[in-house]
Protein 1
Amino acid sequence: MLHETSEADNILELSDYRVGFRTERGLAKAVDGVSLSLQRGSTLAIVGESGSGKTVLNRGIMGLLGANIIEGGSAKFQGEELANTSRQKFWGTKMAMIFQDPMTSLNPVMKVGKQVSEPLRLHQGMSKKEARDRTVELFTLVGIPEPMKRFSEYPHQLSGGMRQRVMISIALAIEPDILIADEPTTSLDVTVQKYILDLLVDVQSKSNMSMIIITHDLGVARGRSDEIMVMYGGRIMEKAPSESVFVEMKHPYTEALLSSIPRLSDPKHTRLTPIEGFPPDIVDGPQGCKFAARCKYAQDICLTSTPEETIIDTHTYFCHFPVGTDAGAEAFKSNKDRGFTAAGLRIKSKREVV
Amino acid sequence: MPKPIRRLIGLLGLLTIVSMVTFGAMNFLGDPLFNILGPVAADVDNPESLKVIEEAKAQYHLDKSLPERWARWAWDFVRGDFGVQFSSSGQPPVSDLIKERLPRTLELMAVAQIIAVSIAIPWSVLAASRANRRTDKISTITAFAFVSIPSFAMAVILFYFFSVQWDLLPDTYTATDPFWGISHDHRLIQLILPGFTLGLGSAAAYQRLLRTDLITTLQQDFILMAKSKGVSKRRVLYSHALRPSLFSMITLLAINIGFMIGGSLVVEQFFRIPGIGSAVVEATLREDFPVVLAIVMIVSAGFMVFNYIADYLYTLIDPRVRHEDTSKPRKITSMGM
């Protein structure tokens, strides 16, 4: 937690929240005990690779997962336990979501203007004309040129960036207390990504809504969030105020994620370091730390015992041998000397690189 | 070449081929002279009769070669002269017969299709929104039952319950009654039982297609988006999911209308509706070439026209078809005609 705050200030409060899917093989634990709290007006970035459970976590909070799931633990929205309430009543009024692909998330056979004005008419009792005026206003706000003309166009007539702006207009029309943006820029051209992200942050700061940005790209989260939560295999690996994740990361997974991103400051022809291996099986998962099989620091204990939560100030992490500590350095050194980790992962020498 | 003209040429070419094939096939059926002249036609040993036969042959051009007869028929046909019936009187002319009978069949077809579509849409929405649950499974079984009950059996069942047992609907059709009205003496009401007989099977077939397409649509992201906007479940189904799911159903609808024009004869016979279906049966049995040909041409043209209408409907449903956005995949292309 950033500061000691009263519970009323927390718009979202998860404690040991779990989501499982019933499958033929057994229960797939997509989200496996996540605790977090989100303050009014602040932004949380959830970072992790595909299959880390970040999307399921958020759709679980929204209640958009359908009937085939089992939820556990506690999830409170504005102090109300979500399991005991119908989440539908928050849809279109207090919660809003932006989806990854604006092409598939906008109805292809409905004019975009109508798609934006729909929640206005349904939930804010606006007349057709009022809703239209408000929509045009929102289009102008998110930087859609010729808003009047765009109102009566179909999604396929707009570019990817324009479509995502339409999606943001929908979210803004709702004026939610919490906005969940699920990979809002992944399907967009890199040149458009920055605009869309900055636009999101801009409208968020003006409207005092809380926001969760889901991304697989730590770079997206940097500078645009108050707090970053790194997820892996349905669990939290590390959670810290935004900058300290970059400056003093504790979890080897965070470190691995960062070194898989190219940086301008790197010399030419620097090889990116991919994270070897695949995400863990969530039905019949490994004992101990979920990341152990792919971790360069892994020791025997990592394979048998799940690390306890360590809280230092505002920084939370789950690791036996955290990065930047003596224990971590020693673990890495011993693995490097051996050439492989306790889980059998081979450690390549940096010299092999071109 | 512009698309409408290309299609018109296609239509004319198709009609030409259909008429040739029908003309040739009819020729194998038998000797039409028997119906024109009566028993005299068989009396070839009598010189008197033979003279009459020769005269009739010349009058109806039956002494000419098959291609020439076809050409003569086609030339008359394009000028709107469908010829005379091959009967002793030859009256009324074929065009008058068609004018009298075609509207009855079209009325029946319209009633049947309206019934079919208005049953199929809510039925599919109900089944798709409860996909693979009990309601859906029961509705699937019901749909297969409706599709597999032959129309004469359906006619008997409906007739027995709604007309005989409960006396709710009229079972007799009177061609001279006015159409619009809600008493038993109006054809609109008289067409309800035959309309359901034809429509229930079609409704079930439409339901199978529309349900499947709806289930696919309901898994799209924009449905999730609509839900998260706080759109009610009912509104999500009817105003977001239904429209993009209509393609397959419309395709089948267009084909089915064509079938109904020519294929409603069982229902027409059962409910005594003197329409095109019964006319084609009577004419085929009489070797009445001009009548059969005229009806075949109308049915083929009907098929094509309704497929054009279906193509036009696609563009109304999906703006991506209208704007010819070829870069994006679209659910269905036109039927190619």
Protein 2
Amino acid sequence: MAPTTHSLRPLSCWKTIFRHTRLQKAATRLLTTQAQPKRTFEESKLIAPRRKSNFKILGPPPALKFKEPIKDVTNAQLAILDPTNARSTLFSKTNPEAAHVGDILLVRLKTGDPFAGVCINIRRRGIDTGILLRNELTRIGVEMWFKIYSPNVEGIEVVQRKEKRARRARLTYMRKPKHDMGSVQNIVLAYQRSRGALRGSGGAGTLGKDELKGGKRKVKGKGKR
Amino acid sequence: MAPKLPISWAQLPPTFLLPDTFLPLIAKRGVKYGWTTAPKRGKPNRFNQQTAGLPTLLQSPAAALARKARTLPLRTGLLAIKKGMTALYDPETGVRTPCTVVQLDRVQVVAHKTREKNGYFAVQIGAGSKEPGNVTRPLLGHFSGAGVSPKRHLSEFRVLNSAGLLKIGETIGPEWFLEGQFVDTRSNSRGMGFEGGMKRHNWKGQPASHGNSLAHRLMGSSGPSQGAGSRVHPGKKMPGRMGGHQVTQQNLKVLKVDAEKGILVLNGAVSGPKGCVVKIQDAIKKPWPTIPAAVEDVKEALHATA
């Protein structure tokens, strides 16, 4: 049933009026809609020919194959500083015999006296890998950083291993009085004596004495500083 | 409103009574389509020529170039990508030198800027590569005109004169710099975001106690009070965006040059994160490096001998 339109008050019944016109509009649209044949690709090209680029786009030259130059530089340095790969294996994570935090290490230097102490931190940074050793000299706690690949470091020896694996990566708690190991001088001296004995009775014994002397001198030297 | 008086009692007689010379200047030549097609007038400061007996202008383009003559490099620089930092040890002395490794990626000369056309001499350098589909057509034309592939990074390097304009399309390698020479680097520093005054301007902050409440890192007063204007003076340092701006590092020594790997090892630190673009040019505060004969000349000589 067609809705009745109120001729006197059209403002109140716009909806009904528009419903009618809407239907009409739809009808006319249906009548006038005409299907056009779809243009083929060739025809569309004829109507609007694609502008041909008159310049040549060049391909990029081949890229360099060296994607990790930092590694290259590091490896080149390691080949010079650590040709036998001894230092790398000593601090390698894959090596079960490697030095760990908590071990007592002895660092022999080219210039100056050797330094020994508990390793409380290993900072692995490629060529900049360093270790932090803690000891007590003249009853004062001393910590020293050593770069393991530095040419000034002649050798690094493991004096004593920690009997139980440390459960921390950095043993900073060893700075607290409760956990401080104190001086490791006696352990190092004992180690050096045994090494001297192992090396043989001949010249090695004197060498051991020299080392001992060195150790003593070191204490004095550090005290003066 | 008062009646408008005549502008001048000595007004000119009607134009038809005047000779041609008194007529207002109206452009007759070169007027077409209603506007002038005559060449542009000369620059207004042309009156101040050497012959005019007046002091030479200090704000002219020529004066600006003369001022820069001492500090403009003789040859172009190049673009590199920062790859990170490491250290070099001297096996003899044991001295450790911290260094930055930068790598060159298909660095080519793309365009020139000349005094005649642009007012200064510069070399436009492109580096890296870009998918042509991601480059706009005007830029594609620019690259193809130079005979180079689309580049990811473009930068200009000013040079002193036309002698410093390297041939367009020429590839530059790290051997452009010599081992031991000094360079300046420019790169955008790490962006820190919106930072407080303590970090951004190295302020001290405020005491932790003595009645301080919630104001330990505040900037404090931002200016004087009544009498001084009761306002914040322009340029007052305040919290805000920190980093992400260009930082120049001067006089970095070139420690190593590896043409095969395309790397340069520079002494010390270069601002910016890994992977950032670094502009490298000869140091302006050191004597210009003495570069061996141009590569082309050497090539010819080699061909002649071979």
